[in-house]
Design goal:
The complex is a heterodimer of chains A (about 120) and B (about 80). Chain A has about 120 residues and is α/β, with parallel strands linked by helices. Chain A has a single domain, classed as DsrEFH-like (Hypothetical Protein Ychn, Chain: A). Helices cover about 35% and strands about 20% of the residues of chain A. A 5-stranded parallel sheet of chain A has the order 4-3-2-1-5. Chain B has one domain: 2-Layer Sandwich (Translation Initiation Factor IF3). In chain B, helix 1 links the parallel strand 1 and strand 2. Chain B is built from 2 helices and 4 strands, in the order βαβαββ. Chain B is α+β, with helices and mostly antiparallel strands.
């Protein structure tokens, strides 16, 4: 693999939570594939997708034809994927950052903008 | 074709065959052949794309019913 390929990054912005299992799961399908291809993958949870970062939530999300979200989330983190969670989105939902999985990083708009600018591609789900 | 290692990914949904083969090939030595069998309909296209992106070589692709077996040489 070339060095250029190793430096590539894809950012997936997830906006759907457990209420839409397929849209909630798809960013993690793609992110796992990217990581398996040597591409850096970052998933940013915004809107209702922030619920996916809450401890124990992913294990209740199942989409037809796709692996269970918990398996994909575990694989994503194991392969070095980074999980970002929107700060104002958790505040709006009166969510304490302590309820999030330990690997989740709470970020605000400037951090996410920086991630967007340094990504090869940005996909919004 | 003979393989140094075989991986059975039958019954696994996308993207797990690619995730599993990626992990397996990291544990192998350069030039060794990994055989991966899967029945996911997207596997053939996926394994071609994975090899093209990662630089590993797709040596052969065999079909038996819905099962595709890819033979990949580690680069």
């Amino acid at each position: 693999m070339s060095q250029a390929q190793e430096k590539q990054k894809i950012l997936y912005i997830a906006t759907h939570g457990p209420g839409d299992p397929e849209r909630a799961t798809l960013p993690f399908v793609l992110a796992n594939a990217a990581l398996s291809m040597g591409v850096e993958a970052v998933v940013a949870l915004q809107g209702d997708a922030v619920w996916l970062g809450v401890k124990g939530t992913a294990s209740h999300v199942f989409a037809g034809g796709l692996p269970p979200l918990q398996d994909l989330l575990d694989g994503f983190l194991e392969l070095g994927g980074r999980l970002l969670v929107c700060s104002p989105c958790i505040q709006h939902r009166k969510m304490d950052s302590q309820v999030l999985i330990p690997q989740a990083q709470v970020v605000a708009a400037a951090t996410l903008t920086s991630e967007i600018l340094t990504a090869k591609a940005v996909l919004n789900y | 074709m003979q393989a140094d290692r075989s991986l059975d990914c039958r019954g696994m949904a996308c993207p797990m065959p690619i995730v599993k083969l990626s992990k397996a090939i990291k544990e192998m030595s350069q030039g060794q052949i990994l055989a991966v069998s899967a029945d996911d309909p997207g596997f053939e296209a996926d394994v071609r794309a994975w090899c093209e992106t990662t630089g590993n070589q797709l040596k052969a692709l065999e079909s038996e019913g819905e099962i595709r077996t890819a033979y990949i040489a580690k680069s």
